[in-house]
Specification:
The protein has 593 residues and is of the alpha+beta class. It is built from 19 helices and 15 strands. Strands 7-8-11-10-9 form a 5-stranded mixed beta sheet, with helices on both faces. The radius of gyration is 25 Å and the shape is globular. The protein binds cytidine-5'-triphosphate (CTP) and magnesium ion (MG). Magnesium ion binds next to loops.
């Protein structure tokens, strides 16, 4: 094994080649023991191509004297999730969200805001209107800005006098009244449609490049990540009316490294600072304690807190619509849409095990760039075929799918990632964590983790992933990433994936046999497609617009019913490819009427 470093494939789209060099040298500092040096060089070259291709594609240069647009100096390196959260939360507290008019004059707008202090970063985006996220240098700047803001004057309606950092730009002198198009560059907050994306993928030269390109296109951008923290911070201002010391943290795919643009925003109302947990009682002398209302259970407390906060969000929260209190769920939550950001939000409380699984997924994603790439690809593939859905139901969830990818990577003959038990064995005293009786301990110091020298390419891994699950004995076995081994199923359920921390729970309890069968059938089909020369090599001549490789896997499936699978397998390959290509052609036909 060669001591290498944190080779986290950069998510940042605007890093320059010099940053890449800096990344390479910082690898020596992080001291992660990873795969062979050759593989590192290859993966750096890949990252280089990826970065160069991305530079300047989605962000226009800021005007000459304007402050730097967001993201240009972003280098998260191998920060722990905790450090990243603290930094982002702090940024969010110094930020405001402003609804602008479509022809807002950027220069005048910035000049006006600068009267309240230095602007560190800003960007514009569109979501039911034009919005700007503006990060000031100091919190006082935001206070000064809010002091100058006025209450809206309404003639026929009334307003709830709740002031927040969600503002509207009203002064017409900041709007360009000439008929010219506004030069404002908006940061995309959604992914490109799958059909367009399939065509783009078909122009790549290898399946590895297709996978990298997919990860690059679908991962959360720097701006989207900031917006997520800002929405949490705005929500915190509402909750703080009752619990001034609370924080609201994003968890799940918003921060675990596997989030796709457009994914929901899972939020955790953290009251630990005031919950009486981890409180040291003075050994002697006088002390005072708060009188607090008692409740039957922690669950009952969580339900009543979420009920009240949910009510506030509903009645007072600017931009929060469609609030639903789902308090009887296993994990009580308040669901709503935050219109200005376009996020579907789930607010939970007392959900500390989910925070831990978020940290664990983040860690696995940081260990080797192939982890994130494979997860993104499988998630995208699953979504394209309706294996996953944004509507709750008997579908496989993205979280289950991610655990399936992790399990597969642990099961390689040379494992790419370690088991959770191994990560627990490497933990230091400060990592110890027991939540509601569940051992959630695992190492937080990345440099203690030694990885094995697995050199498989993304293409090989993707193909093997499909093969692995096409033949996995789901009827008997459960997936267990704590042990990195399949085990006999402890209960009857079509798909059993042990929850990594609450080990008595099945993460995929909701999945029914039909959905699992569909997943298996699709794995068989995709594994087969990746082994056909017609589909696994670039075709279509110079401009290469004919779908191939990963693009073929995202085309509508020919799996009509699972029963006919065997028959289909005997069809000549050319017939199947023809069918697939035909279906792409039909999908791309302009819609009439
Ligand atoms: N979670 C869990 N056990 C489950 C479901 C979810 O521990 N059975 C935790 C995981 O940490 C997960 C988070 O709750 O990441 C959020 O759940 P969910 O929104 O369903 O999944 P995401 O990972 O956020 O994926 P998506 O992009 O689909 O929202
Ligand atoms: Mg989520």
């Amino acid at each position: 094994m060669v001591p290498l470093a944190c080779r986290r494939q950069s998510q940042r789209m605007r890093l320059s080649a010099s940053v890449l060099t800096a990344m390479a040298s910082s690898f020596a500092v992080c001291r992660l023991h990873m795969r062979g040096r050759v593989v590192l060089v290859r993966s750096l070259q890949k990252a280089d191509t990826f970065l160069q291709r991305s530079i300047g594609t989605d962000v226009a240069a800021a005007q000459a004297e304007a402050p730097p647009r967001d993201g240009s100096d972003e280098k998260d390196g191998c920060k722990s999730l905790h450090a990243l959260q603290v930094e982002r939360q702090e940024q969010a507290e110094r930020s405001v969200l402003i609804n602008c008019q479509s022809r807002t004059n950027e220069k005048k707008f910035l000049k006006y805001l600068s009267n309240h202090g230095d602007i560190k970063k800003y960007f514009f985006y569109e979501s039911y209107g034009l919005y700007a996220v503006v990060e000031f240098a100091k919190r006082e700047n935001v206070a000064s800005l809010l002091e100058g803001a006025v209450i809206p004057s309404v003639s026929h309606e009334s307003t709830v006098p709740f002031k927040s950092r969600l503002l509207s730009l009203r002064n017409l002198s900041l709007v360009d009244l000439s008929n010219q198009q506004s030069g404002l560059q908006c940061q995309p907050q959604t992914t490109i449609p799958i059909n367009e994306f399939i065509q783009r993928l078909s122009k790549e030269e290898s399946i590895d490049q297709q996978i990298t390109s997919l990860t690059e296109a679908y991962q959360l951008t720097e701006e989207n990540s900031r917006l997520r923290f800002l929405v949490c911070s705005l929500l915190k201002d509402i909750a703080a009316a009752y619990f001034p010391e609370c924080t609201i943290k994003p968890f799940g795919s918003s921060v675990n490294g596997f989030g796709k643009l457009g994914c929901d925003l899972d939020m955790f109302l953290d009251l630990d600072g005031i919950s009486g947990r981890n409180v040291k009682m003075p050994k002697s002398g006088l002390s005072l304690e708060y009188q607090m209302k008692r409740a039957n259970s922690e669950r009952a407390v969580t339900q009543s807190i979420l009920s009240v906060i949910g009510e506030c969000v509903d009645q007072f929260g600017p931009g929060c619509v469609g609030v639903q209190k789902i308090l009887n769920a296993r994990c009580p939550l308040v669901r709503f849409a935050h219109q200005p950001s376009g996020f579907q939000c789930d607010l939970t409380a007392n959900n500390r095990v989910a925070m831990k699984s978020t940290e664990l997924l983040y860690l696995y994603g940081q260990l080797d760039p192939r982890v994130r790439s494979l997860v993104f690809t499988v998630r995208c593939w699953a979504r394209a075929h309706g294996v996953t859905s944004s509507i709750p139901g008997a579908w496989i969830s993205n979280f289950s799918l991610t655990v399936m990818v992790l399990f597969f990577l642990q099961k390689r003959s040379i494992p790419i990632i370690p088991t959770l038990d191994h990560l627990r064995d490497l933990a230091g005293p400060a990592d110890k964590s027991v939540i509601e009786g569940n051992d959630c301990t695992f190492v937080s110091d990345f440099s203690k983790i030694q990885l094995k020298s697995n050199t498989e390419t993304l293409e090989q891994l993707l193909c093997e992933f499909f093969e692995f699950y096409a033949t996995f004995p789901f009827s008997r076995m459960s997936l267990n990433i704590r042990k990195g081994k399949e085990q006999n199923k402890p209960e009857v359920a079509p798909l059993h994936i042990q929850n990594p921390f609450e080990t008595s729970l099945n993460v995929s309890k909701n999945v029914n046999a039909t959905q699992l069968d569909r997943f298996v059938a699709l794995c068989q089909e995709s594994s087969w497609l990746l082994q056909q020369r017609e589909t696994n090599t670039p075709r279509g001549g110079a401009n290469m617009t004919t779908a191939w490789g990963l693009a073929t896997l995202l085309l509508p499936s020919q799996v009509a019913g699972i029963k006919s699978r065997k028959k289909r397998r005997r069809e000549p390959a050319s017939e199947r490819i023809k069918g697939l290509l035909e279906s792409l052609k039909n999908k791309n036909q302009p819609k009439t009427g």
